Amino acid sequence: MADDLTSDKLLIREVVENWVVWRDSADWERFATVWHTDGWMTATWFQGPAEEFIKVSREGFEAGVNILHQLGGWSGEIVGARAISQTKMTILQRASVEGILADVVCWGRFYDFFEKREGRWAIVRRQPIYEKDRLDPVDPAAVLKLDPGLLASFPEGYRHLAYLQTKSGFKVKPALPGLRGAAVEKLYAEGVAWLAGASLPGEPL
Q1: In 3D, which of 39, 131, 45 has the Cα closest to residue 87?
Q2: Which of 63, 93, 95, 191 is the most exposed place for a label (fewest CB within 10 A)?
């Protein structure tokens, strides 16, 4: 029914909004509620169970890691108790790069596999899609010189984000989905299969 569908869409969007607000504000107890217990998170710097993601995010926050998120437009497809949610997002991280304090901005989408269990919508799998990024010194008078070989070794959609994170000591995963290519086409196919009743939310990276 139309009213039920609208209600479900609002509830899913609320979960997406809560993910960003609670994670970025270090509200770890409530952040845990946006996931199902078998939830999986993939990021450039982390791939694993949601429970572990919460743990390492908390450790990073307490150590001074500065990663924030902003959200934009949203689209959702719902079939029964399953949904695929896509949300325009921006990742913002600040860190020292080659001795210069810099901000990296990465634009993309959160591609989320949702399921409604016991009346509650929550995330089963989150896979970001990285579309484009840039890196700028915080001080506009500073000159930031990057290693062109290292920069070119990362995928175009998150090249500068990966550079900053690598220089900060993170191990960055290669070949994550971007705006075009085999990786994102595979993700879309997994989303279609999820809505059609697949036993698993694709092959989490």
Answers
A1: 131
A2: 63
Q: What is the rounded (10 degree) CA torsion for 86, 74, 23, 193?
A: -20
For the whole model, what pTM was predicted? Answer: 0.96
- pLDDT per residue, tens digit, the chain (205 aa), is 557 878 999 999 999 999 999 999 999 999 999 999 999 999 999 999 999 999 999 999 999 999 999 999 999 999 999 999 999 999 999 999 999 999 999 999 999 999 999 999 999 999 999 999 999 999 999 999 999 999 999 999 999 999 999 999 999 999 999 999 999 999 999 999 999 999 999 999 8
Task: Decide if 74 contacts 161 (C-beta within 8 A).
Answer: no
